[in-house]
Design brief:
It is built from 6 helices and 7 strands. With about 200 residues, it is α+β, with helices and mostly antiparallel strands. It has 2 domains: about 40 residues, no CATH class; about 140 residues, Electron Transport, Fmn-binding Protein, Chain A (Pnp Oxidase, Chain A), CATH 2.30.110. The longest helix is centred in the C-terminal third of the chain and has 25 residues. It is globular.
Length: about 200
């Protein structure tokens, strides 16, 4: 269930954060943002498109004592799915069986997703709550990427409280290896095509 904040950005802008913003000169601009609608609280079509293109993200959780933990999750594009305007879900695959994230969620549902698009210099921050869903075979089958070689264990469902797009400063430009290979393969095919055409023209006046 979502927290009842006066402004959606209050999920991150606590009184302590706002005090530091005031001391360092940024509070007025963020106060104007709050009055103009603050952060998004539903998944827009633009965010859904962004999510569908991602092949990885980071999920932050914390245990009952507040000890944080960040876990990377990866898969084929679209493995993180939008179920409705407030809900995301993904299949959690078998790994090293430490189960830190799901242990944290069993005592503290607060969670955060951090999505990075290095190629297009974009990053999205999503606050919310997450839960582990076990034994729901239809949901797992719906979310499991077709043909992906991984062992599914359970589903994690994430309810969005608020989200924001981060400043692109300092994001290093990186390209997905598969996309780079595809571009190089197309370039090489074009080179071979042009070389074949040159061979045909050799010796012709």
């Amino acid at each position: 269930m979502k927290d009842n904040f006066p402004h959606s950005s209050d999920v991150a802008f606590t009184p302590a954060v706002k005090a530091i913003q005031a001391r360092r000169g940024s509070r007025n601009s963020y106060a104007r943002m709050e009055q103009n609608g603050s952060w998004e609280t539903v998944i827009t079509p633009e965010l859904e498109d962004f999510i569908a293109a991602q092949t990885s993200f980071y999920m932050a959780t914390a245990n009952a004592d507040g000890q944080p933990y960040i876990q990377h999750r990866g898969g084929p594009a679209g493995f993180l799915r939008v179920l409705d305007e407030c809900t995301l879900a993904f299949v959690d695959y078998a790994g090293n069986k430490q189960y830190i994230s799901i242990g944290n969620l069993s005592e503290n549902p607060k969670a955060h997703l951090f999505l990075m698009d290095y190629e297009h210099l974009q990053r999205i921050k999503i606050w919310g709550e997450a839960k582990v869903v076990e034994g729901d075979a239809p949901l797992l089958a719906r979310l499991m990427p077709s043909g992906y070689q991984a062992k599914p264990e359970h589903v994690i469902v994430f309810t969005v409280t608020a989200w924001d797009a981060n400043c692109p400063q300092h994001i290093p430009v990186r390209f997905d290896a598969a996309r780079v290979k595809d571009a190089l393969d197309r370039r090489d095919a074009r080179i071979r095509e042009l070389e074949a055409q040159l061979e045909l023209f050799k010796g012709k006046p």
